[in-house]
Write a structure and sequence with these properties.
By secondary structure, this protein is an alpha/beta fold. 50% of the residues lie in helices and 18% in strands. The protein has one domain. It has 13 helices and 5 strands. The radius of gyration is 21 Å and the shape is globular.
């Protein structure tokens, strides 16, 4: 029974402990996935457009460091790694790691965790595009000039520099999307992991040491990057996701326990996705989609869900 019902007013600490209960995390993550599915139905693209990046969030701890031969206490932080969708800015998955964790292996964890969900989203998009009229026009209306990105991407898929990657993808399945990332993700393991999941990787190449031999696939990626450099520039839109997270929440995590901070991160990502759904539902027509939402086992939007 809630404390207020037995004559005890809950204080802030009681409310915070309840809100960051680790048992809530799987529930919050599932609700976030349902929001992502709903947005996908409202605004489907021919392919999934993904961006992976990381940012730092301070935590209530101090870390001892040595500077100029003196020991000082410095604010500690954790890295928040996210895989988000381009243009719709939905957070598909996230992971909190120590501040010194390398970004590269976390990419493989995120993409691996999303494997089934990405295919589900792709098949959902294909079905909507095949069954509902007027979707391309809706996408162009919502995206404006950015809609040209999709047209250019589809043209680039015919380029000879892309074919080696498409052949590898088709050996295990079908192309489901594009995955953008900066040079921190440029290595053979991440390239192969992307292809395995049906994603065409577009990572900014690292500078190759003079005289060092390189894997053929990485060499091909360098060539492909030069042709698709214009599309890569859109990777910077991930900063808008971080900006929204910071402005709506903060740049810090308040919990001292690791498991509670995981719930904090889950809440941040869920509320971010939910607000995107609310904003999008005000832009596109919702009523014609209610029957389709029901068919997909997604709760249709109600006047309360889209209330300003």
């Amino acid at each position: 029974m809630a404390p207020s019902l037995v004559g005890i007013a809950p204080d802030d600490n009681t409310i915070w402990r309840a809100a960051t209960n680790p048992k809530l995390k799987p529930i919050i993550d599932e609700m976030s996935k349902q929001v992502v599915k709903t947005v996908t139905i409202l605004l489907p693209f021919p392919l999934l457009l993904l961006v992976t990046d990381s940012t730092g969030l301070t935590i209530p701890e101090k870390k001892e460091k040595t500077r100029a031969m003196r020991k000082i206490l410095k604010q500690a932080y954790q890295k928040l790694h996210i895989t988000t969708t381009l243009f719709t800015n939905l957070i598909l998955d996230y992971k909190l790691t120590p501040e010194n964790r390398n970004d590269s292996p976390v990419y493989r964890e995120l993409i691996g965790n999303l494997s089934d969900f990405l295919r589900e989203l792709h098949h959902l998009q294909k079905r909507i595009l095949g069954e509902v009229a007027g979707i391309p026009e809706r996408v162009r209306t919502v995206l404006g000039s950015a809609a040209s990105f999709i047209e250019k991407l589809m043209d680039f898929l015919e380029s000879s520099s892309v074919q080696i990657f498409l052949k590898k993808i088709r050996r295990v399945g079908e192309l489901i999307g594009l995955s953008l990332g900066d040079s921190a993700y440029f290595n053979l393991k991440n390239l192969e992991s992307s292809l395995k999941e049906g994603l065409l990787p577009l990572f900014k190449p690292k500078t190759r040491p003079e005289g060092e031999k390189e894997n053929r696939l990485l060499t091909c990626m360098r060539q492909m990057f030069l042709e698709m450099k214009e599309l890569y520039r859109y990777r910077g839109l991930v900063e808008a996701v971080f900006g929204n997270l910071w402005s709506r929440n903060s740049t810090s995590l308040c919990s001292r326990r690791k498991e509670n901070r995981e719930v904090e991160a889950a809440l941040m990502c869920f509320t971010h996705n939910l607000l995107i759904l609310v904003q999008l539902s005000e832009t596109v027509s919702v009523n014609p989609m209610e029957e389709l939402l029901q068919q997909q086992s997604v709760t249709p939007l109600t006047p309360y869900a889209v209330a300003r």
